[in-house]
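Exercise 7. Given the components listed, write out the predicted structure of the assembled complex. Treat all entries as one system.
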Amino acid sequence: MNDASTSVATDTLVLYGETFQSRLLLGTARYPSPSGMEAALRRAKPAMVTASLRRQGVVSADTSNAFWELLKKLGIPVLPNTAGCHSMQEVITTAHMAREVFETDWIKLELIGDDYTLQPDTLNLVEVASHLIKDGFKVLPYCTEDLVLCRKLVDVGCQAVMPWAAPIGTGKGPINPYAMRLLRERLDVPMIVDAGLGLPSHACQVMEWGYDGVLLNTAVAQAQNPLMMAGAFADAVQAGRSAYRGGVMAEQEAAQPSTPVLGTPFWHHAGD
Amino acid sequence: MQIFINRIPHDVDASATLADALGLAQAQPPFAAAVNLQFVPKTQYTATPLKAGDQIEIIAPITGG
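Answer.
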């Protein structure tokens, strides 16, 4: 490879034809303070930040406005989500409201099928994704690592999918490595691992497998030092990506000396 | 007639529009609105009549994952 082909600068993430310099997407919830969130986001320089919508009145106008102003100040593309939606109509309405508020066609499609695990409703996810695609949204669907589901999401027009590593907020890391690696091999669209990552090594791991990016929130926001953890994840994502592009060595069953044995001094003299 | 704004009951005139309801709720930008789970673009607020029992949702940006 020449310098150009190995350059980080030329290795960009492309989603729906848009180019992003970072392969890390970060959430904005659960930080100890707005200033702590701002510092973490400035350190990580994510491709996008997720945001949501809630009833005015439940959220104070001051809190909402402060968050709004911070988003504008940071200038990072916003990825609104449909978190908490349990029906297709809720998703569709929320997506349209988000498009008007955030002035973006991006939508992180969340259709929850089970409140305990926050597992997506995979039986209805494809249909609602198709609807949103037809409405002109750039849909990034939160889904499981099920190959057929992901393939059907692509078939209806999703140009990227976002399989979970583990249930949201658990920090368990990839709980089904076999399926995730197989999914990566079988599907040739950008895939972003969304949810369940707890450690920078988890992010590095999935990037080594060839995933195109990661989206996480709690692992940074709930770290004892979110600023430091944001940097750790940014570095880990880049390390994993470089490792994937570098090509991992073939694993060996037996030890093989890395130092040449030819010319080893005292060879065959031991015990003489 | 009675309508519901973010689940809270309000009494409004029978001729009230969504724009009236948003004024009643003192909705502050940025926000978006829906009536009975149907999104209403901001250009349509004054042209959207309400009827008794309508459920109006007014939402605002918040942090999210």
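Discussion: Strands of chain B lie at 2-5, 8-11, 32-35, 38-40, 55-63. The longest helix of chain B spans residues 18-24.
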